[in-house]
Design a protein that fits this description.
Helices cover 27% and strands 20% of the residues. The chain is built from 7 helices and 14 strands. The strands form 2 sheets. It has a 10-stranded antiparallel beta sheet, sandwiched between helices. Helix 1 packs across helix 4 and helix 4 packs across helix 7. The radius of gyration is 21 Å and the shape is globular.
């Protein structure tokens, strides 16, 4: 780094697209725990393991077991190498009219999902998965109290090709003072649909998929999973609550959600073998002003699950279009057959 150019954590706005980019120089210093050939963790025990708690930042949340109050099930602590940091100033800095930027304010937390280093999230018991989902809701609720934050995203990167740097099972939370571009696009489409049809776009999608049953993968009493009509990636699956809920803050049916998520991931594992995937939890932005109240009617929280199978290449980067080499209907059919054969108790065609 040249003198006069100190490393700073900040948001910068691209004047050609309007997109915000996070400049976080010390992210490059985070540890990398994967063997590049095997894809397994090189270090055991790692900083996320039981007994290594002193090697992480001070925890901000801990969930313990019902039968052992000493042993934690899930731990949450600030990311040691954050993309955003709560201690940063939150202000828009002046510029030359082209190079808008602001302080790198936000929240970045690590959610360690189990003390067990070699566990696989897709093979968690329903009880364990339920506890992780519960922690998601509690942390989203925690940051709703900070009026400077507009949005809270939960995401998981499992596997070396999904962008994970630590092998130990974990997910992450990033809360931002801006609504993410991807969510903003969904909100715009949902608003247009609501204005024309007077109903939630996502509720309409659920009704259509349940009726047509060509892209439906799984459902139980409270949740439904299907391959999107315009799936961007092979085996992309969306999991949504059947009843309308704009935000994950209203989540109650943890057991049903864990059941659905577990069955979906096990079906994907059977279809694809070693399962490398990302998932992102999209919900309505925090309500900060009267205008935000519309989100309660027009939006519907959902979990987008994207197994790693294809890389974005020049065409995708240059156009924003995706090329999916598989038929969503064919993928859904194959996953239903896998579930029918014994992965889960219910199957979407019942």
């Amino acid at each position: 780094m040249k003198p006069g150019f100190p490393e700073k954590l900040e948001w910068r706005k691209d004047p050609t697209t309007g997109l915000w980019v996070i400049i976080a120089p010390w992210r490059s210093k985070r540890p990398y725990d994967f063997d590049i050939h095997s894809g397994e963790g090189k270090t055991y025990p790692c900083a996320f393991c039981m007994g290594m708690e002193e090697h992480t930042p001070h925890e901000v949340f801990r969930l313990v077991g019902d039968d052992n109050r000493e042993q934690w099930l899930v731990r949450v602590f600030p990311n040691k190498f954050p993309a955003l940091r709560r201690g940063e100033e939150f202000f828009v800095q002046g510029g030359d009219g082209l190079h808008e930027k602001m302080g790198g304010f936000g929240v970045h937390e690590v959610i360690v999902e189990t003390p067990e280093h070699y566990a696989d999230f897709s093979q968690f018991s329903q009880y364990r998965m339920e506890k992780v989902l519960y922690v998601y809701r509690e942390r989203i609720a925690r940051w709703e109290k900070d009026s400077r934050l507009r949005y809270c995203l939960i995401f998981k990167n499992q596997g070396i090709h999904a962008g994970a740097s630590m092998f130990h099972p974990h997910s992450q939370l990033i809360a931002t003072p801006l609504i993410p571009k991807r969510v903003e696009e969904e909100l715009i489409q949902a608003q247009h649909f609501y204005e024309n049809q007077k109903k939630c776009l996502f509720c309409a999608l659920i009704e259509a998929e349940m009726n047509q049953r060509v892209r439906l993968v799984y459902h139980n009493d409270h949740f439904v999973a299907f391959i999107p009509h315009a799936a961007r990636f092979p085996y992309e699956i969306w999991l949504l609550p059947v009843l309308h809920h704009a935000s994950f803050l209203g989540m109650e049916y943890f057991s049903s959600c864990a059941q659905a998520l577990r069955i979906i991931l096990q079906a994907l594992r059977k279809a694809l073998g070693e399962l490398t995937f990302n998932f992102v939890l999209h919900g309505a932005p925090y309500e900060r002003n009267p205008e935000d109240r519309k989100y309660a009617s027009i939006y519907h929280w959902h979990l987008e699950i994207i197994p790693f199978s294809t890389r974005m290449a020049g065409f995708e980067w240059g156009t924003g279009f995706h090329i999916n080499p598989t038929s969503p209907e064919k993928v859904a059919c194959s996953l239903r057959e896998i579930i029918r054969s014994g992965v889960g108790e219910e199957f979407a065609g019942d």
